[in-house]
Design brief:
The chain has one domain: Rossmann fold. The protein has seven helices and five strands, in the order βααβααβααββα. Strands 3-2-1-4-5 form a five-stranded parallel β-sheet. α1 runs parallel beside α3 and α5 crosses α6. The chain is globular.
Length: 136
Amino acid sequence: MRLVVDTNILLSALIKKSATRKILLHPGFEFYAPEHIFYEIENHKNEVIKKSGLSEEEFYIVLDSVLTNAIITPENEFAKYIPRAWDIMKNIDPDDFPFLALALSFENDGIWTNDKHFFRQKEVKVWRTKDLLKKI
């Protein structure tokens, strides 16, 4: 499966060894994320370190690990989809338009997120962790 992965998924996988991390490392999946994800992860780094008990060095080691099956996509590769994604997400959650824009830009199976607000848009299929666990 080819999925765009939302930041909350990666943050969850960083905080603890879980089903989320297991899915991220599963070879049957290919994940995509906008490069904007690094900005969001960096903004939550201290919170993740506190909740996980990881040192800063361990944080980056685990981050590298969970991104093994992820393709980080520069914004210029999906830029023409940004206006459409913005129109859809501006009244739902404007911070998430890059994920929708990326998902609109190539053939994929949807967005993996645990944010309920993504279900308010109808352009791209949304997967929850429990849905993906049934696939492995």
